[in-house]
Amino acid sequence: MKLPAHVLTLIALLLTSVAWADNSYRIQPGDLLAISVWKEADLQMEVLVRPDGGLSFPLAGDQHAAGRTVDELRQTIAERLKKYIPDPVVTVTVRQLGGNRIYVVGKVNRPGEFPFSRPLDVMQSLSLAGGGTSFAALNDIRILRRGENGKQITIPFRYEDVERGRNLEQNVLLESGDTVIVP
Predict the structure, then answer these.
(1) pTM of the full predicted structure?
(2) pLDDT exceeds cutoff 90 at 150
(3) N or C: which end of the chain has fewer CB within 10 A?
């Protein structure tokens, strides 16, 4: 059964709102993390989250980090270190955001890749890209998003509606990896 575009838009909006609702940053591939264990000089290092979402830390082994909060990762590492260190005090901080990126392509003044560290909607992404050119079909904008199963979905966006304060639900919060296409 194929769902209508407006239903897909609402589903995408709800899922994105839930992801940002707890205001906890979710680790992304490409992020640089600083991980340290109190009073353990050999267990203080910066770690890059791999493209597959994993990272390696001494004694804790390979960990899946992407999509988890900093606190969730900290707890997992501390739990694994308990085999070797009694009551380890683990600190995890994000040193550099490298994973949250969206792409704006097509007839905009500054197409490209844009990093973000807070919720970003479609209108804001168009602003980052310098707005549409005079040849842009602003009412035919599409957002490409890859779902959890790897299948891409298309979310339609009509600039004129949002500009006039109508159908605001289509101004969805973007997720890392989304592509905004301005034909």
Answers:
(1) 0.64
(2) no
(3) N
